[in-house]
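TODO from last week: model TMM80 protein.
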Amino acid sequence: NNSYQLSSVPLQILFYVNGIYYIFYFLATLAMIVYKSQVFSYPDDFLAPDLTLLFIMAILEVLRLYLGSKGNLTEEEAPLGLSLVITVGSVILSVYFLVWQTYVLKADVIINAVLLFTYGLESVLQVIAIAAFVS
């Protein structure tokens, strides 16, 4: 019964693209935080949390993409499910940078909207893949 491939090719491609995009996202967000700290009066007690959350998000992203890829390629629902759970955390952090960070620039809105879109698409494909593995 396991002779045909259940792992999702579109999901794997999306993980790959998301990985590359996240590197851009991380560097862009970091650069903007640095820029904002120079241009705006950025209270120090706000700068640290914004930077900390960005680094936490980066760690989550690496874990999320690793577990997602591994779960998808090995056709195991557990790592894929865990990746999906981590996605929830990533979404919350992305929304933080979209809405609640100290200064939100138009560029922040754009790059977070794209990230949230990829999270949404990935989540749908992950649920479909998990359903295929479980059945």
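Done. The first helix runs from residue 9 to 39.
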